[in-house]
Prior knowledge:
With 226 residues, the protein is α/β, with parallel strands linked by helices. Helix content is 41%, strand content 22%. The chain folds into two domains: 8-125, Response regulator (Rossmann fold, 3-Layer(aba) Sandwich); 132-223, Winged helix-like DNA-binding domain superfamily/Winged helix DNA-binding domain (Arc Repressor Mutant, subunit A, Orthogonal Bundle), CATH 1.10.10.
Amino acid sequence: xxxxxxxxxxxxxxxxxxxxxxxxxxxxxxxxxxxxxxxxxxxxxxxxxxxxxxxxxxxxxxxxxxxxxxxxxxxxxxxxxxxxxxxxxxxxxxxxxxxxxxxxxxxxxxxxxxxxxxxxxxxxxxxxxxxxxxxxxxxxxxxxxxxxxxxxxxxxxxxxxxxxxxxxxxxxxxxxxxxxxxxxxxxxxxxxxxxxxxxxxxxxxxxxxxxxxxxxxxxxxxxxxx
Length: 226
Ligand code: CA
């Protein structure tokens, strides 16, 4: 264990070989790494270690990854979470819920890819250079990562925030799902464009009537001032 320059990543994974491979690549990238094999101990580990990010397997004994993330968010803990999933039904369950997942990887994954995804999640969580963006009834404080729809402040996941900020930085411009994946998630279309639709749906649900996001059939999305 021990925290290196980029901060400590907690890997919650019950398969020792996978956990150790992930830890090896994360350490090589300059992260400190702690491993927790039991889902039932993961919440306590997050509270004790205060990691900069959590790599969270869904299939765990004690408490599964989705329940762990739900409990963290319910407690107001928005530490970035990168899910690892072994099965399609787990992925369907994850995408169907609004639990504040920042990204996910499906097994088997390349440990190099895992480390790259952790870096991306953290880079997004640290925000961009623009200070404030508005579009229609939506206002964003970029460095503070806060969002208002009308008068009401809205809590977004780190991925939802980055997606909204990216759309608002390009007002009126139609952005394809592939462009959004590459700009917001930081990787190419191989990961699937469904995740973009899922996050747009979540954003619309949270922003309600103030949502500036327009669907451009067959292409992607645009933010309109309305
Ligand atoms: Ca597992």
